[in-house]
Fold these 4 entries.
Entry 1:
Amino acid sequence: MSKPIRKAAVIGSGIMGSGIAAHLANVGIPCLLLDVTPAQLTEEEAARGLTLEHPAVRNRLAAAAVAKLKKTNPPPLYDEAFAERITPGNLDDHLASIGEVDWVIEVVVENLGVKRELLSRVERYWKPGTIVSSNTSGISIDAMSAHCGEAFRRHFMGTHFFNPPRYMKLLEIVPGRDTSLELVARMKSFCENTLGKGVVLAKDTPNFVANRIGTFGMLATLREMEAGGFTVEEIDAVSGPALGRPKSATFRTLDLVGIDTFVYVADNVYDNVPDEAEKEAFIAPEALKRLVERGWLGEKSGQGFYRKT
Ligand code: NAD
């Protein structure tokens, strides 16, 4: 039996984690927003003589996400009290708090190894009744939780929000082989009635439903662009507003999603579809990988196909 969802923990405070936390806070659910200690000090932190162990540094990623949410979302769009319901913190410092929440949402990088390791750590503090879900774009729910105990796996499922979580109505719920169907039904009802989402129940297949189609279309567009010698601007001109999709121009979307995340998502289908002919369609172009190596990740790094102004 699950508990009513009154308190949540969101792990990973990037594009999606911060957006999901904001959406939860906005419907009145207090949540922890946790992230790892940044790998390096900023120039300013170094100049102040701080170390990676200093609380301000340990909390920097999650605290920055909350500060950004406050700045970029005016009160008419978000309940004024929303930000106060989010407690940013460092994952290592707050891991034990997992035992006190009703829903833990994993929203870290799209990497099976990282997600598996995180779930092991979550399981150590998890209490039966608490739902644990992943926001993965398409990594197998069963593969992610294969090493976890059966009781934990019964409480584990995919809850795939779309970007931006506040505005995108679609949410895929993905049960694994062992997920309790009663918990899936409860989560569906919660997401529809409390979070205002339109829920699609998806199967645990590579990239589920919407991203399998979306990634396919995006990669086909990139191949056509290369073959036809079109520019980024030309492709955006014909793939967004011109088609009546104001927010979905190809390269604007890639910058919003994160180019690194898109490459992980494409690679995941490539690695996991058994059909050789289908694999071909999911080869991420080398040009995207070079942008990632250069640190041009899209809006989150300030530069992708477009420079963020
Ligand atoms: P992101 O790169 O913006 O953020 C990832 C965050 O996870 C970073 O803040 C990073 O520091 C943190 N992190 C990494 N390892 C961690 C760990 N072990 N513990 C705690 N925090 C850790 O990525 P994102 O775009 O927010 O994507 C997160 C998840 O959501 C991925 O699984 C992705 O596939 C999925 N998703 C992304 C989108 C999108 O449009 N970007 C849409 C739907 C789903």
Entry 2:
Amino acid sequence: MEQTFFMIKPDGTRRNLVGEIISRIEKKGLEIKAMKMMQISNRLAKKHYAEHIDKPFFSDLKEFITSGPVVAMVVEGPGAIKIVRRMMGQTDPAESTPGSIRGDYALSIDRNVVHGSDSPESAEREIDLFFSEDEII
Ligand code: RTP
Ligand code: MG
């Protein structure tokens, strides 16, 4: 069994897409092992998006991801990391197939509704950043 970190971003909570998105995860057969609604601090944003800290879009990304509540999850299933990434669609919603979360609910790259870990290393790092061991069922 593989675990991934999955998050509904502030635009998703603001637009009341939480139920819709969680429903897709559940219907796919993936298991939610941990979940919380929280507001990301500047400090956590820098850690979570450390790989992008020197990119030109970083300050906008940090501003956005800290702008409202997110719903953070640990999602488990066989091949969960790749499966969740495929369910999300491409980073740029304009490139995302209809039927994917971003393909169905997003219009722009800087408001793309969800995050999912992109590799086993990211999954381990991100789960550890957002959850303590006793929060994971
Ligand atoms: P995420 O980490 O949020 O799940 O998104 P991702 O893996 O699909 O994309 P990533 O390359 O990790 O980028 C993180 C977020 O930064 C914003 N971004 N903007 N303007 C741009 O060229 C650009 N590139 C990336 C996006 O909001 C992306 O989700
Ligand atoms: Mg990423």
Entry 3:
Amino acid sequence: MSRSVLVTGGNRGIGLAIARSLAEAGDTVAYTYRSGEPPAELADLGCLAVRCDITDPEQVEQAYKEIEEKQGAVQVLVANAGVNRDQLLLRMSEEDFATVVDTNLTGTFRVVKRASRGMLRARSGRIVLISSVVGLLGSAGQVNYAASKAGLVGFARSVSRELGSRSITCNVIAPGFVDTDMTRALSDEQRGAIVKQIPLARYAAPEEIAATVRFLASDDAAYITGAVIPVDGGLGMGH
Ligand code: NDP
């Protein structure tokens, strides 16, 4: 059965792979994009592109109104949009810390809060948050990013406890290194050093994260909530 899906940050990288994968599986998919033009391949799949910056509560509200009007209340939410502003602690500006937390953590709060309204009414729903291996492992130069991604774990587990009795699940995926614009910014030397730490000795393809999202959003995952699922090639083993 086709469900009303929203993927934030669906115009590129992991979010694009998630939107494509759910649309190909038969869901009715809306996705947010913040800048540029929506990708043609998602238009070809019939996905609805909604411009929205998740740091602006007004834009989030407008996006939900448009989605509800065009495809009904969101039944599956994938909170994927995120940024990094890497810098060592001593040199990190207040602004870089705040921007990353406001996007990755507070932005997720905004979209989950708004989605929960319709899900509570429907007494069902699936929420998947895209965190990172770095949230649990830590990473030099990423105190802002790691704090925001670790925050998603406590957030998801609290949401699970609040909404579980209405058959709404909330889970976290913690990807390792995925081949997207975010990691393409690293130098070849940095990439080489990272790959040495990964038991599976390679980066993930965005589609490998999308496959786990598809599972968590499926009927087969109805009894999974408050979980943190690593998709990291073994990088965070033990965390
Ligand atoms: P990209 O940088 O390729 O894409 C990020 C997406 O988030 C873009 O669609 C971007 O929109 C959107 N976005 C950023 N800020 C905002 C905002 N304020 N409002 C709305 N949308 C916004 O990243 P990835 O695809 O690599 O990452 C996707 C998610 O996965 C992120 O949460 C990231 O932290 C996480 N992740 C990534 C890993 C990796 O190795 N790549 C590893 C672990 C986790 P726009 O195009 O307008 O900038």
Entry 4:
Amino acid sequence: MTQRRILLIVTGGIAAYKALELVRLLRHKGIAVRAVLTRSAQEFVTPLSFGVLTEDHVYGDMFDLKEEREIGHIQLSREADLIVVAPATANVIAKMAAGIADDLATTVLLATDKPVLVAPAMNVRMWHHKATQRNLATLRADGIAIMEPGVGAMACNEWGKGRLPEPAEIAAEIERLLDEGDLPRPLLTDTTRTIIAPDLSGPTLHGRHVLVTAGPTHEPIDPVRYIANRSSGRQGFAIAAAAAQAGAKVTLVAGPVSLPTPRGVDRIDVETAREMLAAVEGALPADVAIMVAAVADWRAADEAPQKLKKDGSGAPAPLALAENPDILATLARHARRPGLLIGFAAETETVVDHALAKRARKGADWIVANDVSGDVMGGARNSVHLVTAAGVEDWPDMPKSAVATRLVERIADELAGR
Ligand code: C5P
């Protein structure tokens, strides 16, 4: 496993000393830490202490030309897996919300394309001030993760909310976010797609159209009820994101999920299996289709125009089901069949056997099989087997984002070899 790295931004407040304990805990977990101290943080704690604990250079002032020559603020903001602001003062939160970049810490925060976690610490009145709450709402809407401060006695003899969360809590949250691995990188708007540098290290998907389905479908029973399943859409969204990152034009047909649209992806939202099929057919031709959606096998045969009522007699529910179209199988037989057609097989037992059978039955080129008997559905990690004409590959358990990247690399290799 490659080493997990965070960039820790320490801002000025009495809680800054607790950031030293945080560094110690993170190092203990095997996480590398590089620290940036604002000018006011340095009034409370010294760069020397952080240097000793991080075993790395500590960064302070953007206008130190020597530092900019050694490592620029852009590089500093990109080389970590996660940026953590702890403690985050009301001041730095306000600057982040406004996009102000007037020192190294805030410049890094504005330049980064990495996920950001904020651990606030401030006086209770500053915490409850409308301006601070407004700024926090802005950061949340931007996709920044914010920890709840603790409640208790303040350094200034007041009592209330605003204490820095305990270093152990922050360390645990950092580890959780790093292990999930598929955090949104929310801070850039969609217009930045033109500045995503293509990854030129291997085969790419430039010039290819990749079609992905993701999420569940909702099949209405009556005006208030529907048939659904536990799919979160995360694996499909991660694949769409990875394909866009590899340079493809990506169409993502998504069932009802609450996930942000990955950068560079064209998204079509649908509710039902039949709508999903229509959107998929409308998006053809495609070089690759990856059908990740957990499409409902059945829908209500007739959608009731009014809410169905029980009559109290204990009679069976007046619910007849009809089979939904199989989108994957339909594409396999389609006049405009994508050159590489990939299905998913979510199974709770004899996973690989079912996947081998499914590949043949549905006419897919590859099947990605996963065991959903645990908490895969809705979870952040996945353990899959790739079934191709050449045989079965067992991939180790990894974050869904890593499954996505590896699958996209395999697809690019396959298309390059044709
Ligand atoms: O038959 P099963 O639902 O297990 O097959 C799973 C695969 O088939 C997935 O790739 C899923 O997206 C696709 N599928 C589909 N349309 C359906 C049912 C499944 O495209 N109606």
